Sequence to fold (141 residues):
Amino acid sequence: MSLEVIGKLLVKYDAQQVNDRFKKREFVLELAEEINGNVYTNFAKMQLVQQKCDILDRFNEGDNVKVSFNIKGNRWEKDGKVNFITNLDAWRIESAAAGVTNGNMSAQQAAPAYNNNNSNQQAPNNNFYNPSPENVDDLPF
Fold:
């Protein structure tokens, strides 16, 4: 499954040689989503692996980027306990400002939003979700 998201490149980490056969480079995107007139900010830590690690060198922190990625998950057992890990494996990064004309950014690029494969598609109207201040849980966990 391939997904896309547009966000601001917040942090770039150095590449890590995990073992002799595996290399990864992590980065963080700042994502903003407008719901009922309120903007909610999220942070997504993603990774590039192997030869894809160098893709990030073309971009600077603060750049608006479009990232294509896959969701990868693993399961393992240690001491009889089952554990799970999920990674957001990026495989392409593009400038989100490529469509900017005359110095004006679209609303989507000015305030990054979650996207699916079709970046022009609007988010569905989820009437069952009301993020009014009294319903918002601001705890980080």
Observations:
- The beta strands are 2-12, 16-19, 22-35, 38-49, 64-78, 81-95.
- Residues 107-110 form the longest helix (4 residues).
- Confidence is low (pLDDT under 50) at residues 99-135.
